[in-house]
Amino acid sequence: NSTNLLVENILLKNSPYWTFLANDIANLEIRYTDVDARRRSDIHYHDLSEITAFNTDGFDVAGTNVWIHDCNIWNDDDCIAVKEQTSSSIHSSCSENMLFERINASGVGLT
């Protein structure tokens, strides 16, 4: 649970599980940040034989007022996953008001 958080200009590499989780967040901006959670960084394409790094989500977010932009995400699972708020969340009762733009996403997709 955080408020007014800025994440910028970092590389998150080789995460074995969800790379970045923000839970019960209010006013989050992530910019110019790269996620590289590929099994093999020398391969620059996806086919069924290369999608083997499961649960390597890029950004998992739950909260309100989230802006993720100008990022690159290379993984084998969800690039961005919007999660539900829990009953104990203090910032909002649901995940809402989120904008994702100018993102190079090469994983399974956005959920």
Automatic annotation (TrEMBL):
GO terms for biological process: carbohydrate metabolic process. One of its GO terms (molecular function) is rhamnogalacturonan alpha-L-rhamnopyranosyl-(1->4)-alpha-D-galactopyranosyluronide lyase activity. InterPro entries: Glyco_hydro_28, Pectin_lyas_fold, Pectin_lyase_fold/virulence. SUPFAM superfamilies: Pectin lyase-like. The keyword Hydrolase applies. Keywords: Disulfide bond, Glycoprotein, Glycosidase, Hydrolase. It holds the Pfam family Glyco_hydro_28. The keyword Protein transport does not apply. It comes from the Eukaryota. Belongs to the glycosyl hydrolase 28 family. This is Uncharacterized protein.
